[in-house]
Amino acid sequence: MSTISQAELYRLIAESNARGERVVVATVAHTRGSTPQRRGAKMLFFEGGGVAGTVGGGCIEAEVWAEAREAMRTGAAGLHKFSLTADEASEEGMVCGGTMEIFIDVW
C-alpha cells in the first residue's frame, strides 16, 4: 500500500459520503524514534472493508484497523498511541523501534 494524495483522499471521502457510508480516516499525528511513516500519513477505512493509503504496514496497521473498526461502530474519534519498541519490533521482525500517535476520525 502507498501513501495517498490529498486530492485522492478527499475524492474518496466525498464518494463514500455521497453513498451515505462512513469513512474512518487515520492520520499519523506524531512520531518519535524510528517509525514506518512520518507525520501526516493517512489511511482510509471504508464501511465495506476497503482501505486506501498507509500509516505504516504490518503490525501497526493491524492495530490501527482494530481501532478504526471500533470508531466506525461508535462514531467516536480519538488519538491512539502505538509503541514499536525495540523488543516488540525484534519479536515481529520489524526494524522500527519508535512510537506513533495516530488520530482516528469518522467522516
Please characterize this protein's 3D structure.
It is a single chain. By secondary structure, the protein is α+β, with helices and mostly antiparallel strands. Helix content is 35%, strand content 30%. The chain is built from 3 helices and 5 strands, in the order H-E-E-E-H-E-H-E. The chain has helices spanning 6-18, 58-74, 86-92; strands spanning 23-32, 42-46, 51-53, 78-83, 99-106. The longest helix has 17 residues, at 58-74. The model has no long low-confidence stretch (mean pLDDT 88).
Helices and strands in order:
Blueprint lengths: L5 H13 L4 E10 L9 E5 L4 E3 L4 H17 L3 E6 L2 H7 L6 E8 L1
Antiparallel strand pairs: 1-2, 1-5, 2-3, 4-5
The assigned structural class equals alpha+beta
Radius of gyration using CA atoms only: 14 Å
Largest sheet: 5 strands, antiparallel
* DSSP strand tally: 5
Report strand %. Answer: 25-35%
**Strand order, sheet with most strands:** 3-2-1-5-4
Given the C-alpha coordinates, what overall shape results? globular
- Helix and strand succession? HEEEHEHE
Could you name the ranges where pLDDT drops below 50 across 5 or more consecutive residues?
Answer: none
Instruction: Tell me, rounded to a whole number, the average pLDDT.
Output: 88
Helix segment tally: 3
**Assembly status:** single chain
Q: Between the first and last Cα atoms, what is the distance in angstroms?
A: 22 Å
Helix proportion range: 25-40%
Tell me the domain tally.
1
